[in-house]
């Protein structure tokens, strides 16, 4: 049986000093978040104010076919804009008007800043206000930055959701808000679990459509499904909502703890919680045990990339039998990561930020069985004989909650199994 009483405080590596790294870093930019956000918000459009490089990145990352009309695009900043020879605001207004006249289905328009638009100090916040007045009430215009100058790629989603929070209507309803963009099948599983516990007043941010009945206020409690939503957390807190701290729903243990935090808040009876979670928990444990066999006793090194590193390290060490040599994360939000840090072993090496040369040296010296890193580092490390896993794949693949726990373990097990088979073939 599960105990829904609050767990005793765990120490883990909560007090372990974090190695602060400041130097050259290798990450995607926040524009990448558009690739999954435009699929979640069906009446939204993401207009990147950037260069041809930004446009090429989005086209390549999304794999958009030439005859498709996706819910994103790029307003190209030409040389005259960058040199200050043209009024970029006038040109932006003209491009937005053309877009909205052609796409009557758009209800939310996001003006997404990029490195070029930030370099020339283009005030997209003022532009969003001006365009909202012009096109309201049919279209709501918001803005956020997807610039990769000082951010990692998952912060694009965080910036987008944080921009949506201030315009949510006020509500006094006692409600649960589940925050973070998930694949539709995973979101449905999440809602089935929560509603199965008897919690009916539930909303999800982001909602599929702008007209969704969603508000926020002092009676709103929220649970984060993604560990990189620090700005969204701050924005909701400013609106009076209250965060439910918990480990993140990766693996059987994390999912159960995440659901327990919600169950305690809404006084879900122990028997009902057990009835809802017992079967999927058993399936998750069985699936992880089967998939994680190649990982047992192996070592893993995390380069900072997606901000999923701490929850994934907790999953691999506690449920898959791995040892984490080093867990690097671009940023460590002390409030959001509190429960994850408490579950990692005392003395675990944790680094925040990146100095890629120093981390490469430590990785080579440790020679881990598996290295989780960005695309730019994976091929060179593979050439040196290290087995790697692309961090970005863990963002694009359904990995949350019980039914995906085995798949999550498999993502790490495949490269390890592949190397074992290659070594076996070489020995023969």
Low-confidence stretches: none
Shape: globular
What is the strand content?
Answer: 15-25%
**Structure classification:** alpha/beta
In order across it, which strands form the biggest sheet? Answer: 1-12-11-10-13-14
Q: How would a crystallographer describe the biggest sheet?
A: 6 strands, parallel
CATH topology of the domain at 19-25 and 288-427: Rossmann fold
Binding site for [4Fe-4S] cluster: 29, 54, 115
Pathway: Porphyrin-containing compound metabolism; bacteriochlorophyll biosynthesis (light-independent)
Domain Nitrogenase/oxidoreductase component: 29-403
Pfam families: Oxidored_nitro
Record the SSE blueprint:
Layout: E1 19-22, H1 34-40, E2 44-50, H2 52-62, E3 72-76, H3 79-82, H4 88-102, E4 108-113, H5 115-119, H6 124-135, E5 140-145, H7 155-164, E6 175-179, H8 184-196, E7 202-205, E8 220-224, H9 230-238, E9 242-243, H10 251-265, H11 270-291, E10 299-302, H12 309-319, E11 323-329, H13 338-343, E12 350-354, H14 356-366, E13 370-373, H15 375-383, E14 388-390, H16 393-396, H17 405-427
Parallel strand pairs: 1-12, 2-3, 2-4, 4-5, 6-7, 6-8, 8-9, 10-11, 10-13, 11-12, 13-14
Helix pairs in contact: 7-9, 10-11, 11-17
Please supply descriptive tags for the structure shown above.
alpha/beta; 428 residues; 44% helix; 14 strands; four-stranded parallel beta sheet; six-stranded parallel beta sheet; Rossmann fold
């Amino acid at each position: 049986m599960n105990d829904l009483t609050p767990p005793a405080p765990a120490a883990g590596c909560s007090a372990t000093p974090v190695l602060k790294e400041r130097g050259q870093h290798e990450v995607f930019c926040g524009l990448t978040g558009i690739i999954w956000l435009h699929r979640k918000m069906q009446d939204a459009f993401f207009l990147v104010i950037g260069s041809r490089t930004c446009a090429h990145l989005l086209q390549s990352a999304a794999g958009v076919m030439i005859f498709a009309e996706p819910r994103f695009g790029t307003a190209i900043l030409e040389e005259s804009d960058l040199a200050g020879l043209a009024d970029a605001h006038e040109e932006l207004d003209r491009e937005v008007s053309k877009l909205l006249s052609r796409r009557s289905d758009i209800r939310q328009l996001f003006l997404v800043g990029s490195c070029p638009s930030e370099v020339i100090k283009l005030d997209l916040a003022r532009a969003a206000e001006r365009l909202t007045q012009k096109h309201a009430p049919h279209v709501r215009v918001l803005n956020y930055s997807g610039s990769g100058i000082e951010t990692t790629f998952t912060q694009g989603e965080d910036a987008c959701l944080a921009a949506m929070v201030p315009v949510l209507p006020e509500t006094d309803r006692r409600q649960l808000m589940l925050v973070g963009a998930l694949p539709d099948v995973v979101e449905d599983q999440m809602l089935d679990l929560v509603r199965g516990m008897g919690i009916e007043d539930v909303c999800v941010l982001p909602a599929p459509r702008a007209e969704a009945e969603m508000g926020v206020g002092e009676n709103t409690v929220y649970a984060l499904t993604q560990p990189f939503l620090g700005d969204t957390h701050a924005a909701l807190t400013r609106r009076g909502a209250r965060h439910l701290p918990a480990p993140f729903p990766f693996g059987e243990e994390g999912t159960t703890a995440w659901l327990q935090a919600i169950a305690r808040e809404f006084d879900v009876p122990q028997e009902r919680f057990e009835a809802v979670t017992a079967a999927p928990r058993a399936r998750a444990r069985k699936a992880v045990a089967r998939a994680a066999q190649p990982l047992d006793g192996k070592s893993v090194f995390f380069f900072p990339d997606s901000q999923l590193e701490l929850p994934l390290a907790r999953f691999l060490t506690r449920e898959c039998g791995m040892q984490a040599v080093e867990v690097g994360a671009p940023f460590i939000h002390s409030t959001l990561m509190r429960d994850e840090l408490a579950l990692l072993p005392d003395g675990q090496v944790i680094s925040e930020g990146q100095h890629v040369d120093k981390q490469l040296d430590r990785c080579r010296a440790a020679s881990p069985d598996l290295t989780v890193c960005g695309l730019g580092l994976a091929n060179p490390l593979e050439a040196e004989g290290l087995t790697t896993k692309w961090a970005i794949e863990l963002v694009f693949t359904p990995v949350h909650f019980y039914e995906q726990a085995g798949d999550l373990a498999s993502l790490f097990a495949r490269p390890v199994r592949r190397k074992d088979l290659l070594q076996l073939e070489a020995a023969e």
